[in-house]
Amino acid sequence: MPFVVLGLVFLMALFCVIPLIATAIGGGRKARSVEDRPDVSPCPSEAARFLPGGEGMLKIRLQTDKHVVTVCETADGRLFYDGQGKGKPVTDEYHLQIPARRTEGGYTASRGAYTYEIKPGRLVVTRGKEVLLDSSTSPA
To answer: Residue 13: its pLDDT value, please?
Structure first.
C-alpha cells in the first residue's frame, strides 16, 4: 500500500506540479513568430532585417517629410525603434535601430544623449534638453 501512495504522489508531481513550475518560470512559454499571429502586421522588411531573428510585429510606422520611423516588437517581447532617412541609403549616417520602450502616449528610444519620442501624429528628437526635431507625422 505505501508503494501505491508513493506512486500516486510521484505521478501527481510529474504531471501536475512540474509543468506548473516550468510555466511559472517561463520554461513552458514558446516565442511566437508573426506567422503564428494572423491578427498583427509583420514588421516591414526594411526594418525587420535589422531585428534579432529578422522578423517582428509592427507596433507603429510613421513618416515625416524627411524620415520614416518604425517600432517593431520581436517574438520575445522586445521593442525596437528603427529610424531611416527617406530616400537615403541604409547606412550608419541615415539609419538607426535601437531598443525602445512603451510609454503612456507612444514609444521612446534613447541612445547616448539623444531621445526619440514616437507618438501618433508626432516625432520629437532631443539631445539633452535641446529639441532637435518636433515634427508632425502621418502613417507610412
So the answer is: 40
